[in-house]
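Morning, I've got a small favour to ask if you have a moment. It would help a lot if you went through both lines with me. I owe you a coffee for this, so here goes:
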Amino acid sequence: MSRHLGLNLGLAAALVLALAGAVLFGETALSAAQYAQALGDPASGPGEVLWQVRAPRAVCALMVGAALGLAGAIMQGLLRNPLADPGVLGVSATAALGAAGAIVAGAAAVPGLVEGAALIGAALAGLLIVLVAARVRAPESCSAWRCRALRAR
């Protein structure tokens, strides 16, 4: 078994264990009999807790974490910088600016408008970063004065 396959299998097992732990443990402690009742009758009280509260929350956390990890990997690959991060590049701050602008404008009473403004702010910052990254081919390989001298040739 190769090293990468073993690592991937170990990470997949850890993910399954974390997902099972998120479903099994919560604010309301359930006994073994209640878990059996929840598995046998999903409409029962313990079944509602397990399948209507804990399982969707755990799956949602899994999907959000995977999406954030993928977004970070895409940003690092696109910018050719292993240290690229939304917080470092200002995407998070621009999203917060968009949300704060929507709140100040009085749009907080409309459901989803603050989140939409934050999404637009983050998209604008991301677009600006991509445009700058497309113009500067290798920002890590030359200083500002040397890059200008190379472009002048």
Q: What stands out?
A: The chain has a mean pLDDT of 86. The chain has two domains: 1-81, 85-153. Helices lie at 3-24, 32-40, 45-79, 86-89, 91-104, 113-135, 144-152. Residues 1-81 form one domain.
